[in-house]
Amino acid sequence: MTAASPPAKAPLPTLDDFPLKAFDTIRFGDTDQQGHVNNAVFSSYLETGRSQMLIGPGHRAAPEGLSFVIARLVLDYRAEITWPGTVDIGTRISRLGRSSVDITQGLFQDGACVATADTVLVLFDPLSRRSAELPPESRDFLSRYM
Predict the structure, then answer these.
(1) Could you give the C-alpha distances from 12 to 18, 72, 76, 109, 118, in angstroms and in order?
(2) Which of 121, 119, 107 is nearest to 77 (CA)?
(3) Which one of 69, 109, 118, 134 is at 20 to 30 Å from 75 when CA atoms are compared?
């Protein structure tokens, strides 16, 4: 019996693969006892990229009174991030659903991909405590990042 070959791995993205680019400063306090950025901080860097897309000067992707909440986050660590320096954050929309938005992101240090993430955000109505349908204005705004 012959063992099957493992599936080929997709190449890691580059920062140029993302329409929205942001960055964050790596703080000494982000590091752990191993001297690299703690795994929990990776999510904070991803939030920086998402926030710049969803809420920024002069724009807001969610209609007034509604907000986006994370329904799912899959984060793959590819390499360590070290202090000092900056981390570049690439963000793109990979799918627009009825009430959800799928986001793909990459984290980069010195041009190398150090993490990839897929996040599902749901438009949330805090009064009904349920999801809300994405209005046309939100769809139009978010589609520019596909």
Answers:
(1) 12, 21, 11, 13, 14
(2) 107
(3) 134
Distance CA 68, CA 3 (A): 45
pLDDT at 1 over 70: no
Residues 23, 15, 99, 139, Cα dihedral to 10°: 90
| 10-20 per-position pLDDT tens digit | 799 999 999 99
Query: What would the pLDDT profile of 44-83 be if each residue is shown by its tens digit?
Result: 999 999 999 999 888 889 999 999 999 999 999 999 999 9
- The span from the first CA to the last CA of the chain, in angstroms, equals 45
Cα-based distances in Å from 128 to 62, 65, 96, 125:
16, 11, 22, 6
Query: How many CB atoms within 10 Å of residue 1?
Result: 3
Do the beta carbons of residue 102 and residue 120 sit within 8 Å? yes
| Cα 63 to Cα 135: distance, rounded to the nearest angstrom | 8
What lies within 8 Å, CB to CB, of 50 at 6+ separation is 91, 103, 105, 119, 121
The model's pTM = 0.91
Pair 78, 14: CB distance under 8 Å: no
